[in-house]
Amino acid sequence: MITPTVFILNNSSQFINEIKSRLHPFGISVMGKYEFSNFDFVVDHEALAKCLLINVDAENFHSLQINGIFTDKNRFKDIPIILLIQDEKLYHLIEKKAYNTPLKVFHSNILLEHLEYEILASLPYLGHKDTQYGHIASVFGRSPKITLSWLLQFLNQHFFTGIVTIENQRRTGTIRIDKGQIRGIEYNKLPPGQALRTLLQLNDATFRVEQRIYNHSDVLQYMEEGEKQTALSENDLLVDLFYFMHNHLERSAPESTLKKIIEETFQASTELFANGVYLMYDENIQERLCIVGKVGAQQVPLIWQVFEKIYNQLIPSTEQKSFPEFVDSLHELRPYLKQIMKINIVLSDKETEMLPQ
Length: 357
Known about the structure:
Radius of gyration: 24 Å
Helix content: 40-55%
Strand order of the largest sheet: 2-1-3-4-5
Distance between the termini: 60 Å
CATH architecture of the largest domain: 3-Layer(aba) Sandwich
Order of helices and strands: EHEHEHEHEHEHEEEHEHHHHEEHHHH
Number of strands: 12
Low-confidence stretches: 124-133, 227-232, 343-357
Shape: elongated
CATH topology of the largest domain: Rossmann fold
CATH class of the largest domain: Alpha Beta
Mean pLDDT: 76
Structural class: alpha/beta
Oligomer: single chain
């Protein structure tokens, strides 16, 4: 399999090395050159090129024009091209020339996180189109450089539709995702929850992300659903609640006990799995909780019950504070409890009475 390669034409070795370090965990190679007068550098390795990142200044702008980058004669029209410009006048000039072309134009002071995303977003459209699942292979990588939990969260946040393939010791697992939500997990004939837990614990695995090719109706639906998202989702609220609960419980129980009970309780949450929502305990992140899948009105009370079950198992018998009383003591979350109520979370009468008025 050919490793996707990003070509960078930039006079800063520090910039090239930074992009290289950011893309390496995704299994993406980077080839950099500090100055150029033509595109021989890219032509010699054209089969590898999956994205071209160019820092444009007054000196190389002429070379871009000669090579027809801004016209339909551009020989690299099948390769995503990202242009970075520092000079303001040159930026506006190139912005006009790039109008109605596939070129992406940004100021050179773009946040590196944003640039990283733009590069990753460009790669799927030129991946391997002959995969066994009929998708486009977009990103390759190896754990533990990138954890599967982080990858699933990333795909969830971007409403990804496609397949994640995980390979380890001659065994292959697949996770099917539709608009960010897990719709199926297959690994070693295990039940979905156990299969996901097993996949998350693999220390040396390779994965491949294959994005489904979108048609016109898919794009329209994607845009419509994107407009419905709020700044603070139910996922965010529940992760925050779990974070405060975990901090409270770890004062009275060792980490190993916390992990065992939390993972067992998560694994038993089969009703959530049926709704495409998975709870994952991750010791490597501050929040300790990853929620994969879109949490809606039906899932919120189920997750609330899971949290309460964990709390009741771990809280010392000497402490008289119930789970609803603990939640009410979290002043940081009080402003958002009413928001949870708006999505019809099922609370007991006692819990409802305790909500701030």
